[in-house]
Amino acid sequence: MQKGIRLNDGHVTYLGLLAKKDGTRRGSLSKKSSDNTKWHTKWFALLQNMLFYFESESSSRPSGLYLLEGCVCDRSPSPKPSLSAKECLEKQYYFTVSFNHENQKALELRTEDVKDCDEWVAAISHASYRNLANEHETLMQKYLHLLQIVETEKTVAKQLRQQIEDGEIEIERLKSEIAAKLKDNEKIQSSPTTAPSDDDSEIKKIKKVQSFLRGWMCRRKWKTIIQDYIRSPHAESMRKRNQVVFSMLEAEAEYVQQLHILVNNFLRPLRMAASSKKPPITHDDVSSIFLNSETIMFLHQIFYQGLKARIASWPTLVLADLFDILLPMLNIYQEFVRNHQYSLQILAHCKQNRDFDKLLKQYEAKPDCEERTLETFLTYPMFQIPRYILTLHELLAHTPHEHVERNSLDYAKSKLEELSRIMHDEVSETENIRKNLAIERMIVEGCEILLDTSQTFVRQGSLIQVPMSEKGKITRGRLGSLSLKKEGEKQCFLFSKHLIICTRGSGGKLHLTKNGVVSLIDCTLIEEPEGTDDESKSDKSGQDMEHLDFKIVVEPKDSQSFTIILVASSRQEKSAWTSDISQCIDNIRCNGLMMNAFEENSKVTVPQMIKSDASLYCDDVDIRFSKMMNSCKVLQIRYASVERLLERLTDLRFLSIDFLNTFLHSYRVFTSADVVLDKLITIYKKPISAIPARSLELFFASSQNNKLLYGEPPKSPRASRKFSSPPPLAITKTSSPNRRRKLSLNIPIITGGKALDLAALSCSSNGYASMYSTMSPFSKTTLDINKLYVSSPITSKIPDEGEGKTDKADEVSLSKQDISVREESDNDQIQSDEAEAEVSPTKSPTTPKNVKCKNSSEFSLFSYNNGMVMSSCRELDNNRSALSAASAFAIATAGANEGTPTKEKYRRMSLASTGFPTDQRNGDKEFVIRRAATNRVLNVLRHWVSKHSQDFETNTELKMKVISFLEEVMHDPELLTQERKAAANIIRTLTQEDPGDNQICLEEVLQMAEGGKSEPYENQSALEIAEQLTLLDHLVFKVIPYEEFFGQGWMKNDKNEKTPYIMKTTKHFNDISNLIATEILRSEDVTVRVAVIEKWVAVADICRCLHNYNAVLEITSSLNRSSIFRLKKTWLKVSKQTKTVIDKLQKLVSSEGRFKNLREALKNCDPPCVPYLGMYLTDLAFIEEGTPNYTEDNLVNFSKMRMISHIIREIRQFQQTAYKIDYQPKAALYLLDGSSVMDEEGLYEASLRIEPKVPN
User: Annotated region Disordered: where (predicted)?
Assistant: First the structure.
């Protein structure tokens, strides 16, 4: 029998305890028994290459030991379990330890965690002494190799030290030799010199000449090197880079000053005011208005000091670390940006408090503010990030790719662009609030309605208001009088709810006229007023103003009605004004009709059909909305696909005037005119496609048991039976109270693009007693929404037929004294109405005032009282008649309310009644959609043609396509008369020239200049030059098409092809500036030069009076040229008075604060005017930089388009108003003659010739 191996049991126990305490791996494992039947859980501990196991974790003595040297540890698959143990074994993980001995059985272990299993396998696999020995051997070899390297390096270092010591000895030796040589030289120089010989003197002269030649050649070489570098692209880039940095320093100093004024002049005083006993504002409101303003000021003060420190170390400019300071603080800006809209809304709300408004005006009157308002200072931080982006763009453009700051500046630019996109959206959404507040500040008397943040600014301009005579009449001949043009000129501001009419006072301030605040909901617009025969014969002097006037009839609910007559300067301007006013009236009236029946306030609500359409409020993959509402009380679009924008344009439920104007300005960026026109043609031919699929189910929803879309069905079965046949409406003088009842007519009508909820209409019960009595088609009736006449709310049983006949007898006996009649002027319509009407009394009674509606819940589009149907929307040519619901739809959407209440049309009045079959009601709704689609197409085309005639003048194919389509529309037999008339008006606008603008065009002026000879400057007067310069500047400015303002084409390489007219404007500016400088430098006599300067300054001052700020900048920039500015002797003789005028003009057109003084002057002046185009191009560059036209999802950035559209709107305001200046060839040819004008280099050479540089 073989004896077992004896071990030192005590030492093994010690090692087992050491493994249990400090082992490499410890834990519970299941060990398979020797008979391969059972698993026992043991506590295992691994120490080096020994694996101990214990009965439990608390055991003090190991139960066994496995020596792992030379073993192999691997994962093993799980054994196939029985059905009962399958679930349990799924959580077991097995591994085996195999020994090299053949008869040695492998150790089988398992764990419950796969991670634990893998860690055990890895630990056991590395537990080998042989592996440690091999690693130790490898390390020892590396150690010996490193020792050899160290010894070698020590030897080399010793040799180098020896060489250094030898070198020091050699240096000391050479120093001693040099010292000895110097001593010898001193001795030689101190000894008396002998008289030089002639040969020595000659040699010295030769050496001196050689020295001069060497110096001259060196200087020439260095000069060539320096000049080559100065003219090199690198030097040019560095110069421009330095210029950008210096400009950035000036802009940052200005911005810090603005923030300082915001905090010290507004924030801190308002905090103190909020702590007073009677605070005009609360601390919460102060915090909301000025959120993070003080922190932003501190941040930029630090940034500014750092920038100054960088400038102090010039020419070494390192800026990237400065932006590293700024970038982590952008979250402060983000909070300010997100709060900006709320801040301006709180400010507008607080200004309704008179005490706060008075206090705020005191703060704004401080000299530091320079007449700038608080909202202006609150907007400055919104423009700072785009300014940084522009600066970084310029820096990167002039920074070489291998520059150390390139990557840092790129990173800073990308981070700032992310914030800039958010800022552009916020600025776009709050621009309307700031515009309203700015106009309100200009009005001396104040205008509280402009503090309503939901009001949208549409347009402004100068119109002539014609005074009314005592009898309310006007002689058309007065329209052309010069005195009327001067006295009656008014500044008009159109908003989505109101029209503001003001006069311009001193200092550019505005004063409200009498009845100057006109609520559009009370208005009826008459675009073609008709004069009487006597008036037309009385005076012919107004013929030049023919068809330029339009009338607004205002019928306030709490005062007497009045009429406003306004005259435009051209047909195009009149068309733009009337189309915008009519669209605003349609929007506000239809919104007003959408009020809920029991809503107490006057806020406009959205109809159920729009409320239930989630696509108008919820973001989707192809559309994103902002927080602001448009004029139709629907969320504004922020981003959208082209398809969704076209869908919004043709959505028959509503049409926002601000969306329409923005779309027509910017559609060329993301689509083409042909696509837009094809969409309109498709809507006309397939009207059902104009309603989004999401709303079709709502529109055609019908149920016998549930509520209809537009209200509840009549609850009385008898009422339903009573209306099973269409009830004609009868005219009665009065109605007995005991025979009146209330009736709900549910009429689905879309007015002005709106779906209306017409409920609880009051109707006289005797209205359907007379079967064939209708209102006369010759009568005209207007209805103000706030003045609807309704019958008494007293209800009673429905009268029988006999009672109806009795009432009919009363109708015939109406007296003429109780009847008011206005005859129509459209004979064609009279004949068609006569043919359709079966019985038509020629008079319509007025409704007694004692039955006026007093509750907003009774407002409706139609009021049925005494058998009359009265329309609340005006028609294009002021024709008004009794209407059915179907005809009324056309009135509301296109402004037309002609139509005859035939039986078919009366049938449509009760199409929502449950007494009719579903297919009949749906057929009527389809008729409504057809009329809506036709009127929407004509409405959009009218705005397009009247406001954007350039689109059709430059694209003949588009023009002919529109004319062909409109002619096809006019031949539609189902077309209403007013729709046909609207189509004819559009064709006439396209084909006729506007006679209102008889001004000479730029091409004619240039043709005259080619063949003529100009007179010298001395023969021109300052007034003639100023007037002709103003005329030329405006002619160049007015022909710039609005599409050139998109895309920054003027900054691209192919700018002459993309923006030819903007480049012509720039060239004209530079040519005039060069002409002025040439004229000054032409004379050698200083007195003549002084006279020329003073004359041009006088020209600039006259141009300022003519509101030609472009010419002011042309002249002042010419005087500030280096070639003119350096003429010190000349400027010394310029009079003090002239210098004062120059300073005033330079301050006016200074670029400081984004041209703040020039903007203020433009705001306070009336057109005609020529602004400086570069100011608007800078604004557009701010918007374009860092804000792409499309998002990453390929959606159109419509917020950006809206901002650009608002800038274009201001530009076009100045483009459309022409100067009444006669063309004078003498002065004009002089200004256009460039034959003797010098370029920049020639000007500087002439300046040096007149006054050479003084040597230092």
Answer: 710-737, 794-851
Q: How far apart are the first and last CA of the chain?
A: 121
Residue 1112 and residue 1161: Cα distance in Å, rounded?
13
pLDDT in tens, 984-1020: 989 988 887 755 555 677 777 776 666 666 677 787 8
- Residue 534: its pLDDT value, please? 45
Burial class (CB in 10 A: 0-12, 13-18, 19+), 182: exposed
Q: pLDDT at residue 87 above 60?
A: no
Give yes or no for residue 424 having a pLDDT over 50.
Answer: yes
Q: Residue 418: CB partners within 8 Å, gap ≥ 6? A: none
Q: Which two tokens stand for residue 260?
A: 């300082």
In degrees, rounded to 5, the angle at the alpha carbon of residue 348 between the alpha carbons of residues 344 and 349 is 115
pLDDT at 791: 33
Residue with tokens 């005017």: 1169
- Tokens in use for 222? 């260095």
* pTM for the model: 0.56
Q: With contact defined as beta carbons under 8 Å apart, do 539 and 477 qualify? A: yes
Each residue's pLDDT tens digit, 755-811: 333 333 333 333 333 333 333 333 333 333 333 333 333 333 333 434 444 343 343
CATH-assigned architecture of domain 9-127 = Roll (2.30)
Give me the long-range contacts of 356-363 (CB less than 8 A, separation at least 24).
Answer: 356/280, 356/281, 357/446, 359/270, 359/273, 359/280, 363/265, 363/266, 363/269, 363/270
The Cα–Cα gap between 113 and 27 comes to 12
Q: Which residues are CB-contacts of 471 (< 8 A; sequence separation ≥ 6)? A: none
Q: Give the pLDDT confidence score for residue 63 in this predicted structure.
A: 87
Helix (H) / strand (E) element for 26: namely strand 25-32
CATH of domain 1002-1248: 1.10.840.10
Asked, colleague to colleague, whether 9-127 and 448-530+544-593 share their fold, the answer is yes
Nearest CA to 129 out of 200, 72, 49 is that of 49
CB 39 within 8 A of CB 110: yes
Task: Please state, as a whole number, how many other Cβ atoms lie within 10 Å of the Cβ of residue 979.
Answer: 24
> Tell me, which fold does domain 448-530+544-593 have in CATH?
PH-domain like (2.30.29)
Query: Average per-residue pLDDT in the chain?
Result: 74
Contacting residues for 91 by C-beta, under 8 A, at least 6 apart:
112
Domain residue spans of the chain: 9-127, 129-185, 239-442, 448-530+544-593, 717-916, 1002-1248
- Rounded to whole angstroms, how far apart are CA atoms 865 and 763? 5
Instruction: Please state, in angstroms and rounded to a whole number, the distance separating the CA atoms of residues 121 and 1004.
Output: 97
Per the CB < 8 A criterion, the answer to whether 390 and 311 are in contact is no
| 239-442: CATH number | 1.20.900.10
Give the residue ranges of DSSP H helices in 52-98. Answer: 86-89
